[in-house]
Each structure stands twice: as C-alpha cells, then as structure tokens.
Amino acid sequence: MTSYDIAVRGAGAVGRSLALALSRQGLSVALLEAAPRQPQGPDVRTYALNAQAVGLLRGLKVWDALPADAATAVSEMLVHGDAHDSQLEFSAWSQCVDALAWIVDAQALDEALATAVRFAPHVTALPADTPVQAPLSALCEGKHSAAREALGIGFHTKPYGHTAVAARLVADRPHEGVARQWFRSPDILALLPFDRPRQGCSYGLVWSMPTERAQAMQALPDAEFEAALNEACGAAAGHLALSGPRVGWPLQLSRAERVCGPGWVLVGDAAHVVHPLSGQGLNLGLGDVEALARVIAERESWRPLSDEKLLRRYARARAVPTLAMQQLTDGLLHLFEHDTPVLRELRNRGLNLVNQLTPLKRWLAGRALGT
Prior knowledge:
single chain; about 375 residues; alpha/beta; FAD/NAD(P)-binding domain; nine-stranded mixed sheet; 18 strands
C-alpha cells in the first residue's frame, strides 16, 4: 500500500483545487476519484465565482488556462422584486472592482482543473477504491459523501421542496455583462450573462421553484417553456430562447455536525450546502480550500497533519463565513416565499430603501465578492 501525505477523496472542482493547492506546498497527494459517470447530455451548469475564488484559481495556474469565452465578467447586477418599480442595483464601478463576479462554464473549469492535476508534480490520481495510507483524509465528495457517512458524521438537511431548473439561453440583444435576478413568490429566477454558445448574447438560467411546478415546467415543449420564461422576465433581457436541454436538481440547506476530527476533514459540499439564489456554493467550497491550505502551510514543524487541534483551526476559520451565508440564503428564501400583500409591500419597499443606502449596498456586495 502506497503512502501519501494527504488523501483527497473526490475529484470535483473543490477536490482538484485542494489537491493542487497542497501539491504547491510539496506535499504528496492521492486524489481519489470515482469512475466518470456516463454523460447525460451537454453540461449546462455555470458557476458564479467571486474575486477570492478567482484569485485562488489564478494562483493555481488554472484561471488563465480557461478558454476566452468560458468566463464572463459581471459588470452590473439588477435584483427585481415583486413590483415592477422594486429594484436593487449593484455595479462593479461603485465597488471599485473589475467585476462583481465571473460566470464560468462548469465543464471548461473542470477540464482546466483536470489538466492542471495531470501536470502537478506531487498529485497522483487514483480510482476511488484504491487503498492508500495517509495521515490526513480530506473528504470532498459532495453532499452525498460516502466517506463522511462511513465515519458516522451527522449531516443535518432541510429540504426546501424546491427544484432548480438550469439551462443555457440565447437572447436577441447583448447582455452587456448585466446579471438579473427576480425574487418573487414562490420562485427565484436568475439570468447569468455568458458567452456560450453565442458571444455576448447568452445567459445561464437558474430558476428555483416548487418541485411540482418545476417538474411541470421541465415537461413542457421548448416553445411553451420559452413563452413562460419570457413572460416571467418581462422582456428585460430581450427575447430569450433555449440553446440546449433543461436539467433540474432538488434544493436543500445542509451542514455537517462536525467538519474535522483526528485524521479527517470535510471540505465543500461534504460540509455544507446552501440555496443557489446567491451563487455562493462553489465560492464557499473554494474558500474552504484556501483556508485549509493556509492552515496546513502555517502548521508547526513538529505537528502532524492528522492532529485534530491543527484541523480545528480550519474549522474555526470557516465557521462564521459558512454560517453567515447559510443564514443569508435561507432568510432571503423565506422572506420571498410568502405572498401576503403586507409582506410583499414591505419587501419591495425594503429593496428600494437598500438601493438608496450606498454604504449598506457596498457592504452587501463586499460580502458576495469575498472582500
């Protein structure tokens, strides 16, 4: 049985990023990846990455390896409420940054990470069932982590009863780097500016709605789905047409009862899951990667990687950012899921009030940017 410094279980974006970050410290890493699934069709997923996540990927020599059309800068974000005159605006200019976020093709990022792993000098990619010896195992297998379950770590989950419907869209006018989001009862709809398949005129769609309605929407013919989508957006982004299939997945709020122990640590969705309404899922996971890599780099020379006291430093570093994002996304969802006239009026007025409070807007945007 071959020995390594660290075993990383799970080879998604988080697992590969962690393997690369640890490799740069000269640590030997076994990257244990499950057999690739049979493709079910084109990958329509997009990630919304903040400045902190992009900085990490750039440091790993992954970001600059992406194709030019695989990452699109968001220069402006418009958040719409229930009423047509209820709106919250964010801009890169007001934040004094190059972009509020970058919308990234999930498949392109996965491919760039896989290529970087192949050339990483201290990373060995192995099938998931390969027996290895390592003082520390980082579990990055996602929310259905088998290794976490085998350790008996509780994973508290609150199903939302909602499903996210994702697709790629093409508009009849340029997106100009503007992302749009509608918070309404009972759905949340996001249009993420993108450059695939058509440069400057494409979007990634994430439409969260009650599961029964989502199933009905997914079953609609393309023309009927497009009609419902365009009605929901009110022509704010021009006329939208599907450019590929629709996929859906159930939404939940989850957290592990513990994120570390002697010789093991949870990273990414294996530790926490949030609603996608803020686009912060992968940002949280890459924040975990950065924190864990920093804790390991700063450890005392005499302290073993398996030391639980060392790993608790990582747990403490990530506790507040993770809890804050879970509470924010959960609170926003519940605020907008009820359709009483009084509550609808209050939240629409609230959006307009926040829009006029520049310091508060800057603070909110800063949290999303990771600054």
